[in-house]
Design brief:
- The structure is a single chain.
- The chain has 679 residues and is of the alpha/beta class.
- It has 17 helices and 34 strands.
- It is globular.
Length: 679
C-alpha cells in the first residue's frame, strides 16, 4: 500500500469510538532521515490496524507541515494523531495547537521523539529504522486509550509581589507598575538600592552608580501602583499561581518620617558599630541612614546595636522616635511572585592572601568605597592612613576554587565556578586608578582573565597601555603574602610568573586588593517555602535556560537578576525586565490555562491512609475528614505522579498517564503483544 493512501479499519473496541489514527513522520531536514529510513517506517506503521494514514514530511513543524496535518485531520476525520519528530519539549505544543485549529481535542495527540532518542544516538541505519518503528508502534498502541481533556482555567489576582529592593527588584516593579499592575515590593533591609547603591563608577560607561539608580528608585517611589515595605521579612507563603498569600513580618524603623532635627538624634547616640555600607571601613551609629539621597530618606534604628538608652529620644524632644514599637505581620495577596533577592560577595577567610592579618589587604568592594567621592576618604587613595604608591590586585578570590589547593567553604563546598564580573571590575578599577594617579604602580596577579562582555576586553588593552604589570601565577602554587622584611612597604607578594617562564618575583606593595567572587546568599527560607530548584553553585535554577529562562518550576514564580547567578548591573536589569514581562503577560490575561495532566482521586477506592499527603512535594493534597478521603487541589497539582506511584489502594490516577495508556505503550515496546488499536 502507498504510504499516503488512507486506510480504514474496524477494531474490537467494545463499542467505543473507532480509532482513526494519523501518523506523520518528520525528516527534520535530514537530522532524522539521514539515519532513519522514514519511508520504510511509514509503510510499516501504515499496516497497523487503526492507522488511517501514515506519511512523511520534510519539516513537520513548518507552516506547510502543520497545514498538511490540519488538512488530513479534516479530510480523513482523524481522531488520534501521532507526530514522530524531535523532542516534545520543542514542538509538542506546536502540534497540539495544530490539532486545536483542525477542531480536534489537542490532547488526543502523542509526540514520539525519533531524533534525540534515535537518529542522534544510533549510527547504524538498520537499527535506527527498527527503533523508530518500534517507538511509533508503542505510540499507536497508546493513543486509542487517550481521552479528550480540557485545560484547567485559573483566575489570577491582578497584583505582583516583588521580593527584593535592589536594582533588579526596582526595575521589575517599575516596569510592572508602568503597565498599570499593582505591585507590592518588600525589602529585608531598612533602605532600598541594594548593592548598586554602594558602587562608584560602573563599566563600561563610567557613570556613577547612584546617579543611574536614583531615577529607577524615583519611578517606583512615586508610582501609586507600588506599595513598599522595608525591614520586611517573609515568614510564610501559601497558595498557588493566581492566588498566593504571603505573610510578611515588618520590623519597625523606630524613626518616623516627621521627626525634626534627626541629626541631633544621631549625634546623641552613644552606640557605634561597623558600617556595612562602607564594608566595615568606618563606624556608624545605631541610628543611621547609609548615604545622602537614600530611600526612605529618614533614618532607621539598628536594633542589634541599639541599647534603648533613650538619648536619641531626648535629643528630639520625645517626638518622632519610638523605641517600644513591636514588629507586626501583614498578609500580601498576589497573582504571581517575582524573586529578586540578589547575591552576596565572597568573604575571604582569615589569612587568605593576608586578609584579616594585614590591614593593607582589602577587598575590591572596599576599594570601590574608597574611590567614591562620597566615600570614607572622599575619593582619596588612602589606606590605613597611608598614601598608596603601589597597589596589587588578586583575581579569583573565592572563585575557580580547586580541591587540594583551596580549602572548602563553611558548608563544605567549593566555589569552582567563574564569577564572571570580577575580572572586568578589577580592570576597570585599575584603569580608573591609572587615570587618577598616573605614577601609581599597579600589579595584576591572575591565573586567568575573562573579560566576557561586549567591549570589556578594551579594559585589558587600556590597562596594558597605561603600564599595569600583569603577573600570571600557577593556580597550583598561588602567591604568598607577608610583611615586607625590608619595611620599605607594608606588604610583599612572592609568586612565580608564568608569563616570564617561571621567574620568581617579589613584589613590594602598599595595598593588596582581593577581587572577591560572587556567591549565592542564604536562601534556605525561600527554597523551603517555594520548593525552588537550586543549582550546584547554590543559585536558584530556572526551568530551562532557553525555553523558560526566568521561571521556576512552580507555576507563578519568576526569577529576576543575580538570584540566578553572577551578573553585572546591565544583565540584572535585563533579567528583571524579562521576568516582569512574563509576569505582566500572566496578569493581563486575567486567568491562566494549565495542562490537565494532574492526579485525580477515585473516592470509592481511597482508604484515607494519608500516604499521598506525606509524599506530595507541592502540598497539593489534603484530606476530607468528613468523607475520610484524599482531596487534590487542581491549581497546585503539577502532575508529577508521585502520589500515583505510592498509593497502596491504587485510588489515584493521572490524566494523560492512565494505566491503560502506559501499559499498552510498554507492552508494544517490548513486542509482547501486537499493537492492535482499540478504544
Amino acid at each position: 500500500m502507498n504510504q499516503d493512501t488512507p486506510r480504514t479499519h474496524s477494531s474490537g473496541n467494545g463499542g467505543g469510538e473507532e480509532p482513526r489514527i494519523g501518523v506523520f513522520i518528520c525528516h527534520c531536514g535530514g537530522n532524522i532521515s539521514d539515519v532513519v529510513d522514514v519511508k520504510r517506517v511509514a509503510e510499516e506503521i501504515g499496516r497497523i490496524p487503526g492507522v488511517v494514514i501514515s506519511t512523511t514530511h520534510m519539516f513537520a513543524c513548518s507552516d506547510p507541515g502543520q497545514a498538511m496535518i490540519e488538512q488530513k485531520i479534516k479530510e480523513l476525520n482523524l481522531n488520534r494523531v501521532i507526530v514522530a519528530a524531535c523532542s516534545p519539549s520543542l514542538h509538542e505544543l506546536t502540534f497540539r495547537r495544530t490539532l486545536a485549529r483542525a477542531g480536534l481535542n489537542q490532547y488526543l495527540y502523542e509526540h514520539t521523539n525519533i531524533r534525540e532518542q534515535d537518529s542522534w544516538v544510533v549510527t547504524d541505519k538498520e537499527l535506527a529504522t527498527q527503533k523508530a518503528t518500534r517507538l511509533i508502534r508503542a505510540a499507536v498502541a497508546r493513543v486509542p486509550h487517550l481521552a479528550p481533556l480540557q485545560k484547567r482555567v485559573i483566575p489570577i489576582h491582578p497584583s505582583v509581589l516583588v521580593i527584593g529592593g535592589g536594582i533588579a527588584g526596582l526595575t521589575a516593579a517599575s516596569y510592572l507598575a508602568n503597565r498599570g499592575i499593582a505591585v507590592t515590593l518588600i525589602e529585608s533591609s531598612p533602605f532600598l538600592g541594594g548593592r548598586m547603591s554602594r558602587l562608584a563608577g560602573l563599566f563600561p560607561t563610567g557613570k556613577q552608580a547612584r546617579d543611574l539608580l536614583r531615577p529607577v528608585m524615583d519611578a517606583v517611589i512615586n508610582n501609586p501602583k507600588v506599595t513598599i515595605h522595608t525591614n520586611a521579612e517573609m515568614i510564610q507563603s501559601t497558595g498557588f499561581i493566581g492566588d498566593f498569600r504571603t505573610t510578611v513580618r515588618i520590623v519597625p524603623r523606630g524613626v518616623e518620617p516627621t521627626v525634626v532635627n534627626v541629626q541631633a538624634a544621631i549625634d546623641a547616640c552613644p552606640e557605634q558599630t561597623e558600617d556595612e555600607f562602607n564594608f566595615a571601613l568606618t563606624k556608624r551609629k545605631a541610628i543611621y541612614f547609609p548615604y545622602d539621597g537614600c530611600y526612605p530618606s529618614h533614618p532607621a534604628i539598628d536594633w542589634k546595636g541599639c541599647t534603648k538608652c533613650g538619648k536619641c529620644v531626648e535629643a528630639v524632644g520625645a517626638k518622632g522616635i519610638n523605641l517600644a514599637e513591636e514588629p507586626r505581620e501583614i498578609e500580601i495577596r498576589s497573582g504571581v511572585i517575582l524573586i529578586a533577592v540578589g547575591l552576596d560577595l565572597y568573604q575571604p577567610r582569615l589569612g587568605e592572601y593576608g586578609f584579616g592579618q594585614f590591614r593593607e589587604v582589602i577587598t575590591l568592594a572596599q576599594l570601590n568605597r574608597i574611590l567614591d567621592a562620597k566615600g570614607p576618604t572622599g575619593g582619596k587613595l588612602v589606606v590605613n592612613g597611608r598614601q598608596v604608591r603601589s597597589i596589587g590586585f588578586m583575581h579569583c578570590v573565592g572563585s575557580m576554587q580547586q580541591k587540594g589547593v583551596h580549602p572548602p567553604g563553611p558548608d563544605g563546598r567549593m566555589n569552582d565556578y567563574c564569577s564572571r564580573v570580577c575580572c572586568t571590575a578589577t580592570l576597570h578599577a585599575e584603569t580608573e586608578l591609572k587615570t587618577r594617579y598616573p605614577n601609581l604602580q599597579i600589579y595584576d596577579f591572575h591565573e586567568d582573565i575573562r573579560t566576557y562582555g561586549r567591549w570589556h576586553e578594551d579594559y585589558y588593552t587600556l590597562a596594558s597601555e597605561q603600564g599595569v604589570a600583569f603577573v600570571r601565577f600557577n593556580p597550583l602554587r598561588p602567591p604568598q603574602v607577608e610583611r615586607d622584611p625590608r619595611e620599605e612597604t607594608p606588604l610583599l607578594v612572592r609568586t612565580i610568573d608564568r608569563l616570564t617562564f617561571g621567574e620568581e618575583l617579589e613584589v613590594p606593595l602598599d595595598v593588596l586588593v582581593l577581587a572577591t567572587g560572587l556567591v549565592a546568599r542564604d536562601m534556605a527560607r525561600l527554597v523551603d517555602l517555594f520548593r525552588c530548584s537550586v543549582g550546584p553553585d547554590r543559585f536558584l535554577l530556572e526551568v530551562h535556560p532557553k525555553l523558560r529562562p526566568v521561571e521556576l518550576a512552580v507555576f507563578g514564580l519568576f526569577l529576576a537578576g543575580s538570584v540566578q547567578g553572577p551578573m553585572d548591573t546591565v544583565e540584572s536589569t535585563a533579567g528583571a525586565a524579562a521576568a516582569s514581562a512574563k509576569a505582566a503577560t500572566l496578569i493581563s490575561q486575567g486567568s491562566i490555562e494549565l495542562d490537565p495532566f494532574i492526579a485525580r482521586i477515585e473516592e470509592e477506592v481511597c482508604s484515607g491512609c494519608r500516604i499521598c499527603l506525606t509524599v506530595c512535594p507541592y502540598d497539593a493534597i489534603t484530606r476530607d475528614d468528613a468523607k475520610k478521603v484524599a482531596v487534590i487541589n487542581e491549581a497546585v497539582c503539577t502532575g508529577c505522579g508521585t502520589c500515583v506511584a505510592t498509593c497502596p489502594s491504587n485510588a489515584i490516577t493521572q490524566f494523560g498517564f492512565t494505566d491503560d495508556e502506559v501499559k499498552s505503550e510498554i507492552l508494544a515496546l517490548l513486542g509482547r503483544v501486537p499493537a492492535v488499536a482499540t478504544a
